[in-house]
Structures are given as C-alpha cells and as structure tokens.
Amino acid sequence: MFKISIIISLLLPSVSFAQDAYSGATLILSSYSFISAIAVGILTSIMVLINARKMKGGIFGSVLYYIGVGMLFVIGGFAASFLSLEFPVYVTNMLRDILFIAGYVIMAIGAGKLFHITRGN
Question: Residue 53's CB: how many other CB atoms inside 10 A?
C-alpha cells in the first residue's frame, strides 16, 4: 500500500499540470520535479516520525523525533521558495531562511542528543 501511495504521489502532479496553460515543457518538468521533491521530502519526514513513535520514547526515539521535525522545517523552507509567485521575493526569502535555520537547529539538537548517548553521559 505504501509503494502505491508513493507512485500515485509522483504521478499526480503530472496529471494536474498537464491541463494548465503552460506553453513550454521545461516549465512543466521543473514544476513536476519541484512538487515531487516536496512530496518525497514530506513522505520521508513522516516515515522518520512514525519510526520515532514506534520506538515508544527513549533516547533514540527522541533523536529521530528531532530529526524528523527538523526535516519538515527544511522542506517547508524549500516549499517557501514557490510562494514568490504570490508574495514579494524578500518575504519568501526571509521565510525560507527562517525555516531553514529553525530546521537545522532542531536537527542539531537531535544530533547533540545522539552525541551525548555515544559519550555515555
């Protein structure tokens, strides 16, 4: 079932963009690759969060939780660059940078917890 949902999520943007009035194949392919990257990033982040929940807490579960949430922030920053069509560029650049920084800081907290585990603290 999971493999089918991945295949559908990769093919769905091509169906929706095929009916729009884009004139060039390059624009359609770039939109398709952008949406596919977002979909794969979100699915991967959700898989990490589900695996963290299956660990039922613990130190490794909390590390995976931090990394999964950080990945979602980074994906959000990546998706924010698409908003430049609706909002001014400086707003989308600021939002993208804030989400990237927050995501990387959250993942660094998870990496720090993992480092403390390996040191035995």
Answer: 13
